[in-house]
Write a structure and sequence with these properties.
By secondary structure, the chain is of the alpha+beta class. It folds into five domains: about 1-15 and about 190-285, Immunoglobulin-like, CATH 2.60.40.10; about 25-185, Jelly Rolls; about 300-380, Immunoglobulin-like (Sandwich); about 390-675, Aldolase class I (TIM Barrel), CATH 3.20.20.70; about 675-755, Golgi alpha-mannosidase II (Immunoglobulin-like), CATH 2.60.40.1180. About 15% of the residues lie in helices and about 35% in strands. The chain is built from eleven helices and 47 strands. The strands form eleven sheets. The protein has an eight-stranded parallel β-sheet with strand order 36-35-34-33-32-31-30-39. A hairpin with a 5-residue loop joins β16 and β17. α6 packs across α7 and α9 crosses α11 (about 660-665). The structure holds beta-D-galactopyranose. Beta-D-galactopyranose binds near residues 171, 394, 429, 510 and 549.
Amino acid sequence: MRKLFFSAICLALFSCASYKDEPSLNLNVEWKFITGDDPSFALPGYLDSAWKSMPVDRIWESAGFDPYDGYAWYRLRIVIPSELKEKALLKDSLRIYLGKINNFDQTFLNGQLIGINGENAIPAMASDTNFIHAPTNFWDKPRPYTLAVNDPRIRWDEENVIAVRVFDQGGQGGMHSGGQFIAMTKLTEYLTLDNQKTPFIFVDRGLSKTVLLQNHSNAYTIEGKFHISALDKLSGKEIFYLMRTIELKPGQKEEFSFNLEQLDQSALISYVFDVKGSGQELKVTDESPYITTPQAPEEPRINGAVVTAVRPGKPFLFTIPATGIRPMTFEAQGLPAGLILDARTGIITGRVMEKGQYNVTLKAVNAKGSTTRDLKIEIGDRICLTPPMGWNSWNCWGLAVDEQKVIASAKTYRDKGLMNHGWTYINIDDGWEIHQDSMPKRDPSGNILTNYKFPDMKRLGDSIHALGLKFGIYSSPGPLTCGGYTASYQHEKQDAGSFAAWGVDYLKYDWCSYGNIAKDTTLPEYKKPYFVMRDALLSVDRDIVYSLCQYGMGKVWQWGDEVGGNLWRTTGDITDTWESLKSIGFSQVENQPYARPGNWNDPDMLIVGWVGWGPSLHPTRLSPDEQYTHISLWSLLSSPLLIGCDLERLDAFTLNLLTNDEVIAVNQDLLGVQARQVTVDGDIQVWVKPLADGGQAFGVFNLGDKTANYVVDAEKAGLKPGGELRDLWRQKSLGTAGNDIRMAIPSHGVMLYKVK
Ligand code: GAL
C-alpha cells in the first residue's frame, strides 16, 4: 500500500513544472556572536542585541578573535516562509545547512537541539554534554540538519532562532565555510554518485573507471538520463560520451564502468543525472590522472639530499638512496672514523666524536653499471640540513593508528622503492599514548605509558631502524594531546628520556591543551614550553629533530630557531580540498626569509593518496593537477615532505608524484632557500627558488578555473637569462630559455621548471 502511494506521488510530481530553482534562504550572513558558554544562549527569548556581528564564511580568528579557543555561540533570527514548501517538488523535509564548523557544534532551533557534529539530533542526545568527544578533524565535516516538515520545532512564517554552540579545541575556530542555507530537501539529494570508491586504474595504455549511482530514498523511484562525458582538459575537445536511461527504485544501486585513452594531461569528466520531469540534475565532475615522471633507469642512480648532519657522539644513520635494479652493492670513500657502511644495504651507521665536515664519495654498483656521488657529512651543532622527508600517520589513520599500520608503512618504503628516492622518516602522530579516560597514565616512576595498540615502542623503533629508516613520535607540552591522550606537561625530561630509549629520531610537539596552561598570548608564553622540551631533547643521547606545531601563533617563524625548532607549522591543519591547499600553500610569503638549513617552515603534511584522518580512508579529493601543484609548491617552498596517505594503497599516480627525483632535488637542495612569490598576475603566480648549482627552479601556477596560456617574462621574474630550460616533472630539456617563456597551464595546475 505504502509503496503504491509513493509511486502515485512521484507520477504526480513528474508531470509538474520545473523545480530547477527551488527557493532557499541564505544563512551566509552576519550572525550574532559571543565567546563563553551559557545554556540560556540557546533560548529563543534570549536578548542577543549586545552581541557582536559575525560572518560565517571565515574562521573567527580572521574576524577579530585571534587567538581564541574554547566555547562560543552564534545566533541568527530568521523567518522561515511556507513558500519554501509550497514551491518545492518534495514536501517532506526541511534542511538547515550550516557548512563546516571548527571543531564541534551543538545546534538548536528555537531552544531545542536539532543536531550535533553533523548528525541530526535524536531525543536521546538532548542531554549530551559530551559533544566534544569526536575526532578532531570534525572541523572539515559539513553540518546538514534535517527536520520533518511538520516538526513542531519549526515555526513556519514566524521568527525562528538558530543557536549554534561551538567548541574549538585549539587553532582555528567557528562556523567558517560560507554557503549556509535553509531549503526543502531535493530529490537529487537522495541520489549519490560515488566516483571515489574506485579511483581510475591504469590499464596498459588506457584508464578504466567505475562509478556507483545509488538511490538512498526508501520512498521515491528516481528516473532519468545519465550522461558521462570527457573533454581533453587543455583543448576542451570531447574524447568520450555515453548516455543511459535509468530507473532507480528506492534503495537501488547501479554501477557503470568505462575506459578512456590515456592522455598526457587530465580529461575533464562530468557525470550528470538528469531527473525526469523535475528540471533537477545531479552533477559530479572528475579529472583523470596522468603520469609525467619517467621510470628510473635500470643503471644505479644515487638520489636525495647531498648533505647530512649529526651532533658529535650521537648515533648516525644514513641510507644511500639509489634507484636501479637489484642486487646493488655500495661503497663509501672518505667516511669519518666511527662510521661503517653495510655494502649490501647501503646503510651507514656509527658515531663520530670529532666535529668537522667530511666529503664522502658514495658508489652504487649493479649488473647494469655503476655511479658515484658526493655526500657531505657535517658533524657539528646543526642537524636537519635539508627538509625532512617521511611519512606521518595523521592524515591517513588519525587516532586509529596502530603498530601494524606503522610497520606496514615502513615496509612499503622498502617494497615500493620510496627509500630509493630519499624518503626516510616513519612518524607516529597522536594516538599512541594512554587515553585521558584510562588509568594509570604513567608507571610508578612517572614514565609515560603507551596504549594497547603500541605494546612495545622499543621493538617498533628497532624494526624501523633495521630497515635503514628513522622513527618519529608526537606529544604536546600540555597535559593532553589534541586527541585527548596523555602528553608531556611536567614530565618533559622523562618523556624525552623515554623517546631516546625507544630510538626516536623526530618529535612533533603540538600546542593543544597547553592553551589552558599558558598565562596569556604573549611571546614569552608561546616560547616557554618549547624551551623546556628543547633542553630535554638536548640532554639525551640521540639527535631528535624538533618539530614545533602551534599553527603559526605569534609568527613562530621569527623565533622557532631560538627555541631550538628545526621546523614549525605555519598554519592550522590542512585537509584534502583545493580551498585548504590554496589558502595554506600560497600564503607562505612572509615566512620566506626564515627558512634555511636546520630551520624549515612547515605548511603541514601532504594530502595525496588515500587519506581519511580515521579508520576509513578515501582517495584524496584533490584533482591530479591540484596534486601536481601541491608537490611542486611544497618542493619549491623547501617544506618538510611528510606523506599522509596509506602507503599500502599507493597507486601508480601517487607513486609518480612522490618519486620524481628532479622534483625532490628541488626540495632537498643544499642551499635550503625557500622559493619567493615573484609574480601574482590575476590567477597566475610564479614562485622562484635559487639552487646550489647556480640554477633556479620555478613554478608557474594557475589558480584559476580555466586553462591559461601564459608567457613568463624571465627578466621580470628575476630568472637568469640564456639558461637551459628543463621541465622537471617530465625530466625533459626544452632548449635555451629566451626572455619569453610560453606555456599552457591547466586549471589549478602548474608547470615546474629549472633554468640553468
Ligand atoms: C593537531 C595537529 C595535527 C595533528 C592533530 C593530532 O593539532 O595540527 O597535525 O597532529 O593535532 O591530534
